[in-house]
């Protein structure tokens, strides 16, 4: 029979900062001879010509040649190998971990499969601030949050009337690859209404309001 690698799940979605385990399976046929087994996990990022070594087990020995990005974060669950399961665990997920992963297994035959990892960072906490501009008799209401991918920000008053068109929304990228989104709305100080801002992470259809 042909040696084939199987993947029980082709797509994984991980929350930024969490851990993920991705699995591919291979035929063992009896008890595992570790000295004959090689497992290579590598990552290919969009727009990057080079693939990154994530974890390499060659002839049963661990090779510490993984890309700096994965140092101390990527591990193979060795106790699962005897069951024909090559499970890669990545801890403290980063935005840059997203991409296509190739799991290559050589054990009396060789085969590989691809797995996709998507990373999201929810806009969990919205920081709000109100500043009074005495000279202009106005209030400036600011909402700020971090997440990934880029969120849209909507504003409305307590009558659910949209004020998004009057708001000014900007963003910067943090060192970790998150979007730091700031949205401000200016209104006259004699207004007694309540205002709310909503961050919409469109790709994951998640909404957070303040």
Automatic annotation (TrEMBL):
It comes from Alectura lathami. Residues 17-116, 141-210 form the Ig-like domain. The gene is Cd274_1. It is found in: Cell membrane. This is PD1L1 protein. SUPFAM superfamilies: Immunoglobulin. Its main location: membrane. InterPro entries: BTN3A2-like_Ig-C (IPR053896), Ig-like_dom (IPR007110), Ig-like_dom_sf (IPR036179), Ig-like_fold (IPR013783), Ig_sub (IPR003599), Ig_V-set (IPR013106), T-cell_Activation_Regulation (IPR051713). It holds the Pfam family C2-set_3.
């Amino acid at each position: 029979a042909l040696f084939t690698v199987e993947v029980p799940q082709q797509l994984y979605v991980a929350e930024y900062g969490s851990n993920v385990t991705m699995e591919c399976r291979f035929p063992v046929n009896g008890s595992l001879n570790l000295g004959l087994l090689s497992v290579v996990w590598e990552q290919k990022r969009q727009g990057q010509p080079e693939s990154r070594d994530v974890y390499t087990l060659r002839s049963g020995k661990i090779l510490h040649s993984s890309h700096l990005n994965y140092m101390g974060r990527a591990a193979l669950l060795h106790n699962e190998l005897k069951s024909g399961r090559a499970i890669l665990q990545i801890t403290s997920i980063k935005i840059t971990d997203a991409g296509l992963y190739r799991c290559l297994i050589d054990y009396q035959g060789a085969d590989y499969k691809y797995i996709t990892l998507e990373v999201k960072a929810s806009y969990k906490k919205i920081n709000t601030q109100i500043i009074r501009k005495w000279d202009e008799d106005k209030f400036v209401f600011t909402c700020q949050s971090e997440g990934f991918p880029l969120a849209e920000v909507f504003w409305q008053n307590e009558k659910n009337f949209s004020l998004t068109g009057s708001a000014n929304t900007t963003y910067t990228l943090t060192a970790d690859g998150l979007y730091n989104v700031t949205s401000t709305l200016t209104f006259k100080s004699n207004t007694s209404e309540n205002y709310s801002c909503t961050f919409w992470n469109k790709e994951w259809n998640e909404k957070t309001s303040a």
